[in-house]
Give the backbone structure.
Amino acid sequence: MAEDRPIILWVRRDLRLADHPALSAAAESGRPVIPLFILDEVVEAHGAAPKWRLGLGVAHFADRLQALDSRLILRRGRALEVLREVIAETGAGAVWWSRLYDPDAVARDTGVKAALKEQGIAARSFAGHLLFEPWTVETGQGGPYRVYTPFWKAVRDRDPGAPLPAPTRLRAPDRWPASDALSDWRMGAAMRRGADVVARHVRVGEQAAQARLAAFLDGPVQDYAAARDFPARPATSRLSENLTYGEIGPRTIWHAAQRARQEGGRGAETFLKELVWREFAYHLVHHAPQITSRNWREGWDRFPWSTDEKAPEVLPWKQGRTGVEFVDAALREMYVTGTMHNRARMIAASYLTKHLMVHWRIGQRWFEDCLIDWDPASNAMGWQWVAGSGPDAAPYFRIFNPDTQAGKFDSDRAYRDAWIAEGRRRPSVTALSYFDAVPRRWGLSPDDPYPAPVVDLAEGRARALAAYENRDF
């Protein structure tokens, strides 16, 4: 008799029906399929905003599965233990999942696969989170790329394969296992009152992601190459939120943007390059997982960054009260929307690591806690790129002047006025929302005076350059 035991589809950062290779293969097998999401040791370690946003995505995906006459089973515990429990309860003969590439996920998945195979369970992982598997893109010498531009040239004409259509039905098991209630998990508890503020700006689920992509390619893509650097303009796709949780597949975006490019979309190639920048980050993480937690270039371990989380200059940066408006606007945008414009991210990161001489890991961890589009690879590479310690990094002596950047990319003050309330006679709604989102213990009010600069920009730049010139590596 052909194998007919159920397949457990272990759902992680792949909360979609279309272009989901593991889901499609499970549907095509004809076997019963049990979709399972586990609040496991990796997910439990997520920061406040990513964990809350993941919970929203899980709830939405559970609703989507019902259209396939299926359901999403929820369990909490260590991944291997939960999988073994559900296998025992259902008689499942296989566990399938979509591959992830960050060190924590790889360690978990490697252990799970080995243990299940030893138990006689068919453990199988599928592609789907990236355009190209990291071991399939190599230099002429056979190793991984360490510089982005050659990487882009190596993949720009590759075909990642056509996106798969969504299955129309999943065969249900004879009996469904019990499921936890998502509300009991309280995945948004650490967000506290900030959840209600950020919730106004999230766009959850596969349909929302598809709508974002269509709207972007219908207009903003034309001017994307230039306009994407102006944080007050609606010039970007905002798909990072949805890509993070797999609510849209990268192949779907790739092919849609390629069509736009062929049809004359002026900024489509630049947009494709940004998608491949994400890809590059994951390829680096796969080949050198230490990039997520340590300096890529070991010489930077001796650079005199402050590693004191409680240093007096760190809290004003976290609060968005450095006295530098472009930096503060960036942090406040994050507290209200859960995201931050990419140009603003660079400015905020440069200010922390150079003007304040604070280690990039402190900023990285803060973003891990506050961004709903937190991505372990992109976040790590972005911080190391700005700090100067990573592969293909901006040179350390490239120090963004926030005031100069504001004059260039926010000359009409639209971005700063959108997020800063102090000293304004009629603050914007978004600027006031910041005070509703941040912790009460900060004791902040829009009636407070705007803070004086933590450090003079010229002095901060000079100190950073002196440290760089006197480095011993």
Notes: The two ends are 66 Å apart (CA to CA). The domain at 1-129 is CATH 3.40.50.620 (Rossmann fold). The longest strand covers residues 33-39.
